[in-house]
Amino acid sequence: ASFFERAVSLDPNFALAYSLLGVTQSGDRRIENSRKAYELRDRVSEFENLAISKNYHLYVTGNFDEALQLIQQQDQAYPHNPLVLVGLVNCYGQFLGRADEGLAPALEAVQLSPTTVNYMSLGFTYVGLNRIDEARATIQQARASHLDSPIFSVILWDAAYAQQDQAGMAANEDMARRFEPNIDLVLPADQGHASRLRDLVQHLTASEMQANANEDAGKIESGMAQFEALIGNLAEARVAATKATEMFAGWLTLGRSGLVLALAGDAAGAQKLATELNQRFPEATYGQFYYLPAIRAVLALHQGKPQDAIEDLSATSSHETLREGEMVVVYLRGQAYLDAHQGAQAAAEFQKMLDRPVQSFRSLPTLGLARALALEGDTAKAKTAYQDFLALWKDADPDIPVLKQAKAEYAKLQ
Questions:
Q1: pTM, whole model, 2 decimals?
Q2: Greatest CA separation found in the chain?
C-alpha cells in the first residue's frame, strides 16, 4: 500500500495506482480510491481501463457480474496474461463462488508464472471444488519451489477442515491465523459454543475497529448476528445486527443484518434495511439476487406463506454459493420446504449444503436433514441425522433454543 500511496502523492492523476491502492484497503478508503480511479479511467490504456473498471464494480457497486464480464473481456484482449488470469480466478471463486469455472485459468496462471499468488489461487480453487488431495499437492509443489506464505496454511487448514482432520487443522492453525484470524470462529460455530463465539467476535471486531478496518468488523459482527438468529437467540441477533450496520453499512452488512432482523421477527426493521440496500446498491449482485429475495422469503415464512418463500428463494439459485453468505439461502430454502411439508425437497437442500467442503454451520443443515427425513417418515435415517447433530453439539451451550428443540424432536422418535 505504501508504494501506491507514494505513487498518488507524486501524481494525483495516477488512475491505476488509486485502483491498486483501493484493492489493498477496506471500507470507505477502498471505495474512495476505487471511485477516484474510475473517474480518471479515460486517461489510461485499454488494459488499465478494464482493470480499473473491474475493481470499481467489485468494491464500489458490488456488481460482480459486470466485473466478471470486464475481466473476461480483458482476458480475450490480452490472452495468457498471468495477472488477468489470477483476477479471473478470484472473480469466479472468491466473489461468485464458481470455483469450477476458475480452475482452467488457475492452472494456466501457475503454468505461465509459478508465483506464490498463483499457487494460492489454485489451492483455494481446489478446496472450493472439494479436490482436497490436489489442494495439498499444490501447496507441496509451491513449497518444493521455495515459495511459502501464511496463506498456504489457510488453504491447508481449510483442506483439513473439509475432511474433519483435527490434527491437520491444529498443525496449520497458528500460521493460518496470521492471515485469516476468522478461522477461530469456525469450530465454535460448528459446535454450538455461542458464548465462546461471542467473546471471540467481540475481541476480533474491537481489533478491526482499532485498525480502522470498519468493513471487516461489520462483516464479522453481521456473521455473528446471522448465527444468533439461526440458532434462535433472537434478542442477541437483533443487537448484533444493529451493531454491524453501525460499524459499516456496505451491501453485505446491510443484507445480512436485514435478513437477521427478518429472522428475528422485526419486519419493519428488516424492510428498512432492505430499502436502504436497494437504494444505495441497486447494482450489487448479491444485494439484488441473494439478500433481498431472502429477506422477502423469511418475511413470507413468518406470515405462514412457505410457497411464497420458496418462490422468492428460487431467484437466488444462481448466486447461492457466495463464500461470504455461507449458503444461508440454501438453508432457508430447506426451511421453507419443511414448512410446506415437502420433506424430500427440504432434504435435497440441506444435503446440498453438507456436500460443500468448506461450509460453516454444518451442524444446522445436519439438523435440517434430520427434520426432513422425519417428515418423510424415514425414522431410522432421521435418528442417525439427529444423533450426528447432537454429537457435533455434545458440548454446546445448553440454553440454545435450537438445541432444546432438537433434543425434544429426537426424544419423540424413540
A1: 0.93
A2: 74
